[in-house]
Each structure stands twice: as C-alpha cells, then as structure tokens.
Q: What sequence folds into this?
C-alpha cells in the first residue's frame, strides 16, 4: 500500500552541514541511516573545483530530530534544504544517493530553475517502477518494506535491521559491522521507517521528470539489487535525455565503496553541462 503524501506540521529545522571548497555549489544528499559524512571521499575529490555542501538530513547526525507527533514527508526535507540553495540567481548541482536521491529529485522538481545538474545515485523513487508498469520489482521492494515494518511492529529491531542492511549491502554485512555502528543503526530504526514511508509516497508528474531529463545523470552499480537496476532503467526511460552510467563491481553503496569511479562520473556530467552552456 502507498502511504498518502502528508503535509508537514513541524517548523522547518536548521540542518547541520559540512562545507568545503570554492566554485559552483554542489549539494550532496545522503541516504537512510547515514549523515553528510558519507560524502567525505567524493567531496574531497570535488573540492578543488567546486564548493561542496553535505547536510545531515532531518533526524540524522547533528541535525534536529523530527517530532514524533508530526506527520512527515519528503517535502519536509525540501523545505529544510531551501536555505542551502545559492542565493539570488545562483544555481546548484544536486547529487543524491538512495533516499537522498528521492529528496534531490523532489527538490529539483520544486526548484527546476535553480538546478544546474541533477545526479541520482540509485534513488529509491519507487513510483518510477509503477509509472513504467514494472510490477514485479515494485512488489519485491514492497515485500522488503513490509518485512522491515512487521519486524519493528513486533518489537524486533534486531531482526529488522540485519535484513534491511543485507538487502542494500549484502548478506552478512550486519555481522561484519562494528558493535558501535550496529548500536547506532538500531537507534535509527524509527527514522528509517519515515524514509521508507516517504519514499513510497513520493510522486512526480511526467512533464516534470521530462523537463529535468537532459540535466540528469543516473548512476548505479552492476552488483546492486536487481529491482534497483530495474528502477534506474525505468527512471532513465521516464527522464528523456538523461544519462545512465553503471559502475562495474559496485553495489548500492557505490559513493562509499567506489568513490573514485563515482566522482569521475559526476565530474564528467558537470563538464558536459559546462560544455553545453558554451555552445
């Protein structure tokens, strides 16, 4: 079932962020159970030429938590991120990974004139599968979501989180994680639920997606979950003119595990955009 996109009922929080470098602004948005520090390696590679801004999304890292009594949707992140966009007529390169990819897409749709380029790295924009009529991979994602939520409803986060991590990073990854990292993720379980609900509720019209197509790079790893590869392909078809790059040997966490290849693809996308502006 798709949760309705609900209106936010909490004041827009001020997000903590990590900034560095000079030049055109690049806004880097992390995924679930992460922080802006996720982008440390890519940011260091971008900063000789660009100014990078890597915020902690709501409820992650040093950013304020979301009030438990308030309804939550992706537009909460969009509102919080508005203040980080360049002032006046300035434009920004938007880069988002996983849940951050959904946030980046919604931010771009809300501010198309402010977006220079858009890079979506395995965005969990599940609606793309529905729009493309790809029911099987969509149902597989629903099954993952339902199993995760069911385990939490039974009061079993120790069952929910290992399965969640296994889907995205490979079976056995949970057991290999340091105890402190596992403990931190267990504390994030309720926040991850909000990400799931917001991701499944996110919608976009065909015209908006098409308008962003020529400015969009879609990145994925060839070892990522098969339904995610289906999702990226579906979004590529929906966003006419978009570029799709598959990073060999990479999985869902490619900005972390394959930072150099990921950053090179992003830089190539930026440079292609700069060349188009000179024509």
A:
């Amino acid at each position: 079932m798709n949760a309705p996109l609900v209106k936010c009922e909490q004041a827009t929080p001020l997000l903590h962020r990590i900034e560095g470098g000079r030049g055109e602004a690049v806004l880097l948005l992390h995924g679930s159970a992460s922080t802006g520090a996720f982008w440390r390696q890519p940011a260091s590679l971008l900063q000789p030429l660009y100014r990078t801004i890597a915020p902690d999304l709501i409820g992650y890292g040093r950013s304020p938590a979301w009030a438990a009594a308030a309804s939550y949707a992706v537009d909460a992140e969009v509102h919080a991120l508005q203040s980080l966009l360049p002032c006046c007529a300035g434009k920004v390169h938007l880069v988002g990974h996983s849940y951050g990819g959904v946030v980046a897409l919604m931010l771009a749709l809300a501010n198309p004139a402010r977006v220079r380029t858009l890079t979506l790295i395995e965005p969990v924009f599940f609606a793309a599968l529905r729009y493309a009529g790809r029911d099987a991979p969509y149902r597989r994602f629903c099954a993952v979501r339902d199993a995760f939520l069911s385990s939490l409803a039974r009061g079993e986060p120790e069952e929910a989180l290992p399965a969640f991590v296994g889907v995205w990073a490979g079976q056995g990854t949970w057991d290999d994680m340091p105890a402190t990292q596992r403990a931190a993720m267990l504390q994030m379980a309720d926040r991850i639920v909000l990400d799931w609900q917001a991701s499944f509720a996110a919608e976009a019209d065909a015209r908006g997606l098409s308008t962003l197509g020529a400015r969009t790079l879609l990145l994925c790893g060839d070892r990522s979950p098969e339904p995610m590869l289906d999702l990226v392909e579906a979004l590529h078809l929906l966003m006419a003119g978009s570029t799709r790059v598959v990073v060999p040997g990479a999985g869902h966490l490619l900005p972390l595990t394959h930072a150099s290849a990921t950053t090179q693809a992003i830089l190539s996308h930026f440079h292609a955009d700069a060349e188009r502006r000179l024509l």
About this structure: Residues 17-131+198-278 form a domain with the Rossmann fold fold (CATH 3.40.50.1820). Confidence is low (pLDDT under 50) at residues 1-10. The radius of gyration is 18 Å. The first helix runs from residue 40 to 46.
